Amino acid sequence: MADKEQRFRSEQLEEALAKQDVAAVAFALRNDIVIVPRLVTGKKDMQVRVFGREGTDKRILLLFSSADAYTAMVPNEKVRQVMVYDGPRLEAFLAEHLDSLEGVFFDIAGPHTMQSTPEDLLAALRA
Q1: Digit-coded pLDDT (tens) for 92-113
Q2: Dihedral pair phi/psi, residue 107, rounded to 5°
Q3: N or C: which end of the chain has fewer CB within 10 A?
């Protein structure tokens, strides 16, 4: 069971967020994994769950260092699904959806939340 749990956690990203070290976050995203919320649709397709504010068509991408960090944000949701992304997959998603994203937050439920613009994150992944 520990092996399965490890696939849903990035110690590198956790440590970088704890230090609030932008360069270390970028390095972790390029070289390890990140947990991405999955839209629960009842279908087998794997769609990223993005969040938005009412009255705007822009969306916010929430990324997590672990599945537990995502659970802390949505503790009352009965069905929580996540996907594991690596750097190239995250880069491709950002490039495809750059026009509809207005922000990116890491571990938004804390304790070490960080924020980025989609453009800055994309540039960091391409560095």
Answers
A1: 999 999 999 999 999 999 999 9
A2: 45, 55
A3: N
Side-chain-side CA neighbours of 117 within 13 Å: the count stands at 4
Amino acid at the residue 88: P
Element (H, E) at 102: strand 101-106
Q: In what order do the strands lie in the sheet with 59-63?
A: 51-52, 59-63, 101-106, 114-116
Q: What is the CA radius of gyration of the chain?
A: 14
Please name the residue ranges forming H helices in 7-75.
Answer: 11-19, 22-31, 67-73
Task: Using DSSP bridges, classify how beta strands 33-37 and 82-86 pair: parallel, antiparallel or unpaired.
Answer: antiparallel
CA–CA distances in Å: residue 60 to residues 6, 15, 96, 105: 26, 23, 14, 8
Distance between CA atoms of 36 and 39, rounded to whole angstroms?
10
Helices (H), the chain: 2-6, 11-19, 22-31, 67-73, 87-97, 118-126
pLDDT tens digits, 55-81: 889 999 999 999 999 999 999 999 899
β-pairing verdict for 59-63 and 51-52: antiparallel
